[in-house]
Amino acid sequence: MPPSAVLGGLARSGRWRRTSALVGAVVGGAVAAGLGLGAFAVLVMAGWISSPYPGSGPDDALHVAAAMWLLAHGADLVRADTLAGGPAPLGVTPLLLVAVPALLLHRAGRDAADTADRPRGALGGVVGGYLAVGALATLFATDGPLRADPLSAALHLTALALLGAAAGVWNAYGRPRGPLPAPLRRLHAPEPRPDGAGRPHPGPAFRAAAAGVLVLVGGGALLVGVSLAVHAQASQTTYLQLSDLWSGRVAVLLLAIALVPNAAVWGASYGLGPGFTLGAGGVAWPGGAPTDPLLPPFPLLAAIPDAGTGTPLTWAACAVGGVCGLTVGWFTARAAAPKSMPDRAWSRGETALTAGLAAVLCGLALALLAALAGGPLGGGALADFGPVWWRTGGAALLWAGLLGTPVALGLRAWRVRSRRARDLWGRVKGVRLRAPRRPGWVRTPGWVRLPRVNVPRVRLWRRRDRQDDPQGEQQNDRQDDPQGEQQNDRQDDQQAGPVAVGRRRWWTPWRAKSGTREGSSAPGFEPYDFTVRPGPGPDPESR
């Protein structure tokens, strides 16, 4: 069979198209890894070129660039040359550097999904191409000033490649939810239970947890900024002592900027209560800080609170955890009793379970961030640095759960109560109160008229609207007193005689409106009698 026939058969069967899409996905993953490596190589080579005393050749600079690229994925590095003579681990990952490979993987997965027939093919191709380049970079980084741990690099590269590419493919397909497993499907679509307990709602719980995490990280960044402002002199002195050259100072500044998210997570752990460890020197938390911690000179580390016991200012940092709990409760209550659909309010059990699920998710997120933000900076006294992940996650769970759940239940009850109060006020406002009627045996002079007072009548039960039944209300009024009130009014009119057409105002009793009824000069009529009730005729207000 000729090759043209084989290629034609592959094209007709669709295998050629699937093969080309898979090759494109693999190439896209490799290109994403190459772009990330190139970005780090440009930064490292620019610093090496600008340094007047590099102390090494371009080969070592490229090894450092590959090691920094692996560090951006979370891999552990080892410094071969130290002052002590032995190797020292380096495991603190600048969280801002993680955004570079994550964005490249997301874009590669999204572009591969546009040409692939199946999402699995696009995901597998991108991950395969990315890991192929990552394996070469790991082998290259095993030798040099900074050496990568092969096992740690393999685990972290695979995890980040899968997450980033999966997010891109999912976004390309319109972020579908798809079929979930049976337990997750029941959790996502809770069925009402007869006891009213219900199940938690995962969507609002995720949103409430995300809001709580943002509040914690933002509050931690605020604490770091305040501490830097208080210790500005010490930070400036440390920054100037690290290097006398502008290239070295620029490198230190870029490293400090890359570590700002780490500092925000450290501040969040400090505001939650557990604080963060400073190696073998102790723990810095709102209750106090170690006296003489062995810290490397760095501007961000110079902003650590002063040694000694806690002060009211340091204890005020715990307001970050309180605001997190209030935020989780408020977001949960807003979903539990929405203003647009007040009749679809959740039960107390559903609200409490959703707030509890949001607290668990918030704790898991903070534990993950704390694990990524900390790590060893060396051996011995610097082997453990940063927040402890299980303490930080547990503190976030307690703040969000113990404070968020009561807040969610209270706000839900208030919203339901407000809706009931509005309904009750609508019923009261739509009815009227009757003024007390004058008994039939009471007689008044002809020139005295009691004013009619229309007071709304309060009725706390539902009643059909008067516009729907205009005759019913009038019939009820007649049945209350069909003869007595009308007869008294008729006798009063006969005694009073004819009255002027129109209503005189109390402040101008001498001024009459245009025209009077016939017989206005009858005896007993006084022109200044402004209390005379208008007789039957057209309504003066309608003129």
TrEMBL record:
Taxonomy, superkingdom: Bacteria
Coiled coil: none
Keywords: Membrane, Transmembrane, Transmembrane helix
Region (Disordered): 181-200, 461-543
Transmembrane residue ranges: 21-49, 90-109, 121-141, 153-173, 208-230, 250-268, 313-331, 352-373, 393-414
Protein's UniProt keywords contain Membrane: yes
Residue stretches of biased makeup (Basic and acidic residues): 188-198, 465-493
InterPro entries named in the record: DUF6350
Protein name in UniProt: DUF6350 family protein
Organism: Streptomyces solicavernae
